[in-house]
Amino acid sequence: MPRELQIQVSPEIAANATLLHEHVAKLFQVSLLEIQKVVVHKRSIDARQKAIKFNIKATVYFLGDDYIATPILLPEYQDVSFAQEVIVVGAGPAGLFAALQLIELGLKPIVIERGKDVRGRRRDLKAINVDHIVNEDSNYCFGEGGAGTYSDGKLYTRSKKRGDVDRILKLLVGFGATPDILVEAHPHIGTNKLPQIIQDIREKIISCGGQVLFETRVTDFVIKDNEIHGIVTQKGDTIAAQKVILATGHSARDIFELLDRKKVYLEAKPFALGVRAEHPQELIDQIQYSCDFRGEHLPPAPYSIVKQVNGRGMYSFCMCPGGVIAPCATSPGEVVTNGWSPSKRDQATANSGIVVELKLEDFKPFAHYGALAGMEFQKSIEQKAWRLAGETQKVPAQRMIDFTQNKVSASIPKTSYVPGTTSVEMGEVFPGFLSQIMRQGFVEFGKSMRGYMTNDAILHAPESRTSSPVRIPRDFESLEHVQIKGLYPCGEGAGYAGGIISAAIDGEKCALKIAEILLK
């Protein structure tokens, strides 16, 4: 009968199915011919010792055992052309997976997206990288697939209690992602592969009778007696609906401002802010793998680090092995950084957001903005960075040790950030308390990761869009807004998710709640 197995093996064995079968045969003291199949369920790296191992959880099928490969198939999506309509504002992971769930349940989604489709977005990304031109509706944050489409496609989440993570991963595989994402401890699709998957999801929505409207920005909500009745677009069109899923992402400041003007209840929300640090990938490999050169069977090394400094958490965020830093401003007059990796993670540099926890009290200078105080704090730093970088999409930059010593770097080497850099003392970008915490924090990082603190590491500022600075509060049970009936704040922009998987789960949850009411 099949046997469950948890083992540690060398990178060479983990990378080669034949060697893995031979290893398992020796463990069970049987002939290799007796091993029919080894099905790996989970795989992770253990780099705590000098001899690096892979942890593998698997099922072993012997000759005579019933083994049937079960392909991963998409659900039976219905034709919803004439079904009741639900508006979904935003075509990021929360919006797209909400739309798929609505179709599966027999409701018709009308997806409203301010940006362009994945192909159209590419021209606008080139414009920001090469010409320093920011399109407010089409950029790294806005457009089909949301921020994740062109900023990595990381699928790791700690949100397993929020919903069925494996269901989301299997849906992504069904739409073309590699099945490896079901196995790896830190699954990742890659910026080069995710656009096609997103496009295929959109085509499925349309083929089932749903609608996807690109370059359609929401400029108003039709609200009567604290109940949603539809939305108004920038073209002046009104689209009526009893239920609206609001999945606009963490950077849709115009939506926050619109809701605030309409006296819809919002809350200021703490978030984290800092810099994006770039090291040579070879250096990170040497630190993490305790070796001079990374072997061919090991992936580019990531890192994760957390320190407490003056009562604040300072930690790595959205770490990108073998990746690049990208310009992620959503309006002219601001500079924002983020990072991404291609599927092979084969670039020469590694980068990570290094951010500090903020508290509501930090936003006191902007208290007159009410619930938008954190957003205005965030905006002020991005605008200051833009001015310091010469009012372009160049980014303020500083060598890491120079930053800890309050010293302007005499030179900045070419980094992966295409628009370019300007040598700046980071203390000019951030409030004094934040600069002090980061200076101390980097020194502490260097104590934990020998070699991390180096002037070969370049800091780019700011990393400011870690999560939404605003929460759109909703009822715990119904998931409706606490004030506006029929409005379902969803995903990262509402403050209820933090990444592709958790946003997708949240989108599905909102769709399910709507179906419970409309399909009684």
Account of the 3D structure:
This protein has 520 residues and is of the alpha+beta class. It has helices at residues 11-14, 17-28, 93-105, 118-131, 165-174, 194-207, 253-261, 281-289, 373-388, 400-404, 432-448, 491-494, 500-518, and strands at residues 3-9, 35-46, 53-62, 85-89, 108-112, 211-213, 218-224, 227-233, 238-240, 244-246, 267-268, 272-280, 306-309, 312-320, 324-327, 337-340, 349-357, 395-399, 421-423, 458-463, 470-471, 487-489. Strands 13-14-17-12-20-18-19 form a seven-stranded mixed β-sheet. A hairpin with a 6-residue loop joins strand 2 (35-46) and strand 3 (53-62). The radius of gyration is 24 Å and the shape is globular. The model has no long low-confidence stretch (mean pLDDT 95).
- Specify the overall morphology: globular
Residue fraction in strands: 15-25%
Structural class: alpha+beta
Total helices: the number is 13
Mean pLDDT: 95
The description of the largest β-sheet is: 7 strands, mixed
Radius of gyration from the CA trace? 24 Å
Helix proportion of residues, in percent? Answer: 25-40%
Number of E-state strands? 22
Spans of at least 5 consecutive residues whose pLDDT stays below 50 are none
The strands making up the biggest β-sheet line up spatially as 13-14-17-12-20-18-19
Alpha-carbon distance between the termini? 46 Å
The quaternary state of the protein chains shown equals: single chain
